[in-house]
Amino acid sequence: NPTLRIYRINTEDGGIINSTDLPLPAAAPAFHPNPFTDELRLPNPPGQPMRVEVIGINGQPHGRYEAQNGALQLGHLPAGIYLLRMSDAKSGALLGVQRVVKAGG
């Protein structure tokens, strides 16, 4: 199974502090549009709410959210690249990981 490895880097010396491996399921749901400005949507909204953990490309957590009716409101985030770790809100089962870009403006 493919995995995504996230590294946390020391900004002073460039050394690796730690890393985390996240499995990438083959049929992971995908948010769109990408890049986005305010709202991200799923092409086929799940029947149950989805929990989404937002992680900056530098490894900094930006919160946990619940996608209701296939939509996630992230307009408050600064422009940049983020990883979304998606899981089923009831069971906690990992559904996928997606890289998204928050456009400025």
Characterize the structure shown.
The protein is mainly β. Helix content is 0%, strand content 50%. It is built from no helices and eight strands. The strands form three sheets. Strands 5-4-7-8 form a four-stranded antiparallel sheet, with no helix packed on it. The protein is globular.
Strand content: over 45%
Give the C-alpha Rg. Answer: 14 Å
Query: Percent helix among the residues?
Result: under 10%
Number of strand segments: 8
Instruction: Label the overall shape.
Output: globular
Looking across the biggest beta sheet, what order are the strands in?
Answer: 5-4-7-8
Largest sheet: 4 strands, antiparallel
Distance separating the two termini: 37 Å
Mean pLDDT: 83
Helix/strand-derived category reads: mainly beta
Give the helix tally. Answer: 0
- Stretches where pLDDT falls below 50 for ≥5 residues? none
Main attributes of the structure:
105 residues, mainly beta, four-stranded antiparallel beta sheet, two-stranded antiparallel sheet, 8 strands
